[in-house]
Design goal:
Layout: E1 36-39, E2 44-50, E3 72-79, E4 81-90, H1 91-96, H2 100-106, H3 109-126, E5 148-149, E6 156-157, H4 169-180, E7 194-200, H5 204-212, E8 238-241, E9 250-254, E10 259-274, E11 279-292, E12 298-301
Length: 304
């Protein structure tokens, strides 16, 4: 259905005191702070895990050196999905409208595209603890799980606590210890560290207290706060995402790559004039994929 003068008659007269609802402030692209951005030139992109070699083995004098072979782990497939929206508007509506700026703001497809992108990307965190088949990693586990398999050793590690807990200094200490215990596909020790805390809007104040105070929060103790110092345990601070839908969740982005926003075609707006009907058609189109090929890149706590 095209936008005609009958659809939005209030924009045709100058008797309106105020036209509102079309130009609220918009959130910036928050996901870019903690998702790795990759470019893509295909319908899908493949990410393959390859385990390294194991530890050296004792060699007796005169005996042969033991040989080892790297293992091949699961393959992650991230598909690029198209998202689009458009509208048609009659020539008469454009020509006769008295509030052209309000109409232009209401029909701003770029704003819709940006919010769509943020919603889709952050939804990968909203489903981080889901065991639905569509939400599982290539290894068959949830994005954040207590039993992430190591493809080259048969052992498991966890990128979430065994029992969820509310955001606090004590819970962050447990989380950081679990992060430090993550291992390579062959079960070797690797340097995994927490970089950034990601919280929903409801935890903004609590996160600020934890990340901005040099001494312990909420006590009379003179002990240092390990997370609130210039060289603290989360050096990139914290970010609030209003698109995380569960108020109990929070996440820690680690120094490992793997949480991916895959850009295939950036959002673009195209216009066309339908001369026979004197209508302008405007469409917005973009393609991208979202996924995770290495669970070590993100740690999640479902809260309590």
């Amino acid at each position: 259905m095209p936008i005609t003068r009958a659809v939005m008659p209030s924009l045709l007269t100058e008797e309106q005191k105020e036209i509102f609802g079309d130009s609220y402030a918009k959130y910036p692209k928050q996901y870019q702070q903690f998702f790795d951005t990759e470019t893509s030139d295909s319908e899908v992109e493949l990410y393959r895990e390859v385990g390294g070699l194991g530890l050296h083995i004792k060699k007796a004098e005169g005996s042969n050196i033991s040989l080892d072979t790297p293992n091949e782990g699961p393959q992650t497939i991230i598909s690029n999905i198209a998202y689009a929206l458009g509208y048609r508007i009659t020539h008469e509506m454009i020509a006769d409208g008295k509030y052209k700026k309000a109409l232009a703001n209401a029909l701003e497809l770029g704003t819709s595209a940006g919010e769509t992108e943020e919603t889709v990307v952050i939804n990968r965190l909203n489903t981080a603890f889901s065991t639905a088949s569509a939400d599982l990693l290539a290894n068959g586990q949830a994005l954040c799980s207590t039993a992430q398999p190591l493809s080259g050793s048969g052992d498991t590690v966890q990128n979430r606590p065994t029992t969820g807990s509310s955001l606090s200094e004590a819970s962050l200490i447990v989380d950081m210890n679990n992060i430090a215990s993550l291992k390579s596909p062959r079960g070797r020790k690797i340097m995994v560290k927490g970089d950034m805390l990601i919280v929903p809007q409801s935890k903004d104040v609590q996160a600020q207290k934890l990340m901005k105070q040099e001494l312990q929060v909420g006590t009379a103790n003179n002990d240092i706060n390990p997370f609130g110092r210039a060289q603290g345990r989360l050096p990139k601070g914290y970010v609030v995402s209003q698109f995380i839908t569960n108020d109990n969740y929070y996440f820690i982005r680690t120094n490992v790559k793997g949480l991916v926003f895959q850009s295939r075609e950036k959002a673009r707006i195209m216009e066309d004039l339908l001369q026979r009907s004197m209508q302008k058609e405007v469409v917005s189109y973009m393609r991208f994929g979202v996924g995770c090929y290495d669970f070590r890149s993100i740690y999640g706590n479902p809260g309590s």
